[in-house]
Specification:
Layout lengths: L4 H10 L3 E4 L8 H10 L5 E4 L9 E3 L5 H8 L7 H13 L5 H15 L4 E2 L8 E4 L21 E2 L3 E5 L6 E4 L3 E5 L2 E4 L6 H11 L5 E7 L3 H6 L10 H9 L4 E4 L6 E3 L4 E15 L2 E2 L5 E2 L2 E13 L5 E2 L9 H20 L3 E5 L9 E6 L6 H10 L9 E6 L7 H11 L2 H4 E7 L12 E8 L21 H10 L6
Parallel strand pairs: 1-2, 3-18, 4-12, 20-21, 21-23
Antiparallel strand pairs: 2-3, 5-17, 6-9, 7-8, 7-11, 9-10, 10-17, 11-14, 12-13, 14-17, 15-16, 19-20, 22-23
Length: about 475
Amino acid sequence: MFTDLREFIKVLEDNGELHRIKKSVSHELEITEILDRLVKNNGPAVIFENVEGFDQPVVGNLFGSHRRMALALGIENVSDISLKVKDILRLVQSPPESWIDKIKVLADLFTLSRSQPKNVKNAPCHEVVKIGDQVDVTKIPALKCWPDDAGKFITFPLVISRDPISGNRNVGTYRMQIYDERTTGMHWQTHKGGAQHDRVAQENNQTKIEVAAVLGADPVTMWSGSLPLPPFMDELMVAGVIRGKGIDLVKCKTIDLEVPANAEIVLEGYVIPGELRTEGPFGDHTGYYSEAALYSVFHITAITSRKDAIYPAIVVGRPPSEDYFMGFAGVQLMLPALQMILPEIVNLYMPAEGIFHNLIIVAIKKEYPGQAKKVMYGLWGLNLLMLTKVIVVVDETVDINNSSELLWRITANIDPIRDVTILEGPLDDLDHSASKRKYGSKIGIDATSKTHLDGNTRGWPEDIVMDDMTKSHVDHMWESYGL
């Protein structure tokens, strides 16, 4: 498994999945336009080796395809990540019976123990250390992505903080608008872990939250910051489990936090609880500009880096963007855990156009009346899935990745007055459609077949399917038809 970003870049290059651009390019708009075209046309990852006005290269579109996402996770197919999670959950659910099973469990537990983060004293990310007046974040080639953006934004940081009371670590990916040499925005949204730490600090009259923003690490760790994990789960520990090896951490120079030792760049600093500043607008993953609003402020006390640091960027905008492929892998990771809570779930899909929180399609094995609604309410009650605006439930036989079949089943199977549920609840900070910020209505659609169990007295028609004998005959005769 990869120890840092550089090893991943080399593997991408060896597999024909990375292109180097030596021509001079601008960090304002030009890089975004290149990356946006590539991700929408199944293009490669790119290293921009000559960014006007900066010494550091920029790498982008690292995860912008299912193949690169699988390479990042060290698996053949992105869906294989579910199998790894199922194996881990099986250790918890089913105690071993035979002595062979017990030996296997011991081996698996040993592997899990090796997945814990471990502290080291020396680290590549400390090859260059700048503290105090030496700090100048404007020298990092952060992008101005879209014409109406408020400025330059760091778009792919791993923001590390700790709960002021419990000490639990949170790692999130929150954009950071650069204000000046030593100050940025901290766009941790209301429902995210970092914002929760801010609220806890305010409630307990704490004057400072120490924060580190990591730019560039091994690909699994970079991806882990986007995962919608419960607050009690440490993203760095989860990354170690997926990697099969714990992440090396090193203590920061000016704050009491640990960061990945093999990071490219680390911004150390603090947030003053309750301090707010206007952030945005920003061309967001919704495909619209998110409005300017008040968010926390990050004060930088140190910048540490490798001598030849590579700056990672991600561009979001009108879907599909790179974050879709990261989110698809995240769904595969979380699916086995969801199935423990809602065992009737067979599959779950978040289309790119739904930008994660707008649309979830879920296929279930239906066994009793009201089960589709039970699943809707269950999903709305789970962590960040509470923000989902539309949930569509279909039968287990439906190929939910096939948009043609999906639209056919939905429109054919629903009686709106019976099958549509509307309620109110929390919405994502970025949802622009609701009349109030962060709160509005949601819709659940039961597109499953309706039998007598649902009170349907008319019966339900069979699907039109040709019989196997005729299909076999036509297969055998196909060439003779001259088609």
